[in-house]
Protein 1
Amino acid sequence: MRKHVLILLLVCINGFVFAQQDTLHQKRKSYFGLGFSLGGGGNRRFYGDVDFYLQKRSNYIALKTSAVERIRIFYFGGLPEPHISDFGILVGKSYTFNHYHYVKFGAGFSLVDQVSPGAFLYNDCNRPGGCLFSNNVYEKIRRKTVGLPLEMKYGLYLDRTAAVTAGFSANLNNLQSFYGLSLGLVVGRLKDKGGRRY
């Protein structure tokens, strides 16, 4: 985890050094996008996020929710599936290069929600249907805290209204820090048509 955060910070510094190379042609006062992405969260877990952002020049602010969890198909037990999620606000910079590529770096504040299994409670063998499909039911432990969300995204514009993305996101908190590597899609009013900035 520390290795990934260190790489993220180094890339962020690199991005700020080349900030003057931004070539996005902007005539409007603001731009916006709605995006989602899916990928891996380490330790054989799935990662997913959804975000909505507003951008003015190279500055942006975003509302973002993300989660990592282990997904089991064909599992009907009473054991709560451990997962951790967050909902937060991020601010950052977005730089466009050669009209088709952009990189975003952001950080912010989030509320973190962790669910994990606890003690065994009971077996539901007495339900209709008998014990053939019975489950052991466990306590669900839910804990909350605040976290520091970080993100770095690369995007390729398909046109003015859509782009495909590849990103690294992380949340640093005192319960369980997590990260995700993902691919996604964003749609909205992302940029103006053609032309270089004057």
Protein 2
Amino acid sequence: MDKILAVIFFGAAFGLFPIIIFYGGIFVNYLSYYEIKEYFNSFFMQNLNIYLYCGFGIFSGVAFIVNTNFLRFIYLFCSIIFCLTLIPDIGMNVGEKMFAKNARINVDGQAKPVKLIYKDNKKIYYKFNNNPKIQRLDIK
């Protein structure tokens, strides 16, 4: 029973750190590039992949409870991979792949082609193809 609680505790703690850094790199290098004014906490909670967190959390907990350096090495390797989004070009590319897409949205009563930059539950940030200015549309 103690080992199970230790796996859950260590997994919850050590599984979250690399994921926070992953989304932090996207936040700094993608959202800040487009000057999107969001708080990191709301950005993180709306985009957190719970399956990734649970899977990586269980793996992290097991890696720190079981006495094998190989599992700790895998954890360290995965953490380094997650930290690569802190490199501006990589963070920008990952953000583009995760959030940017071409779409048609209603703007002033007309469906217009736009490039979606970021969308959450309450707002959409977009730009027209011929205009680099980012605009915000509140969703009701």
Protein 3
Amino acid sequence: MTAPIPATATATATWREQLSALRFLAAKVARVHGPTHPDAAIIAQVVNTLIDTPAVDMDTQAALSRRLDELTGGFHPWPGSCGSVHQLFTGLKAVAAALPKKSQS
């Protein structure tokens, strides 16, 4: 009989899966909207960094979550944004909500 998967491991897998699905969208938004919204490229970089962050590094996860919140203006799409931007920001908001808010020390 195998031991149940801890809830934190399941939550980590879920936000990582969501973020992995958003990686392509973040790159697309950066490519298309980068000339008028330079933060789009930084958002894509933060997404990639967050995906590569070890599961146990909750301080970095929390810092990157705060950075995404700052870069997206609280996950509010830019005025006149296309559907891809709306989808990206909505997805990032869900991921950020699943991430630690501060150090677990």
Protein 4
Amino acid sequence: MEHLKHDSRGQPTAVDTAIHKRQESRLNGRLRLTFSGMDAEEIVMDSAVVTDVCRDGIGASSERVLKLGMDLALFIECPDFEDDLCVPDARVVWVSGNHFVISIQSMRMEDQDRLHRTFLSACRKT
């Protein structure tokens, strides 16, 4: 179910109340990601900055405004690794202007651990 709220600047904020509220605090740091998906009949591909990570989600911001419910594939830059981390099954579950939260629909445990290690490392460098 989608409700519409407004932030402190009066901007509309879409919230998916069907998702579970986060149980753990998020980590704060900066990483880059590339995302791709479909918006109606148009292929969307752009980059974003990861602003926080929790066990099953990623907060990010981008110049492109995403829509609630969009299914995305993500490629997260991991500076300490040769290749980017691929998250093939993610969904936009919260949007406020250019900021959004992506729920990870499925991810291997080892990739989840790698994402958190990468994010912790990025936090220490910022």
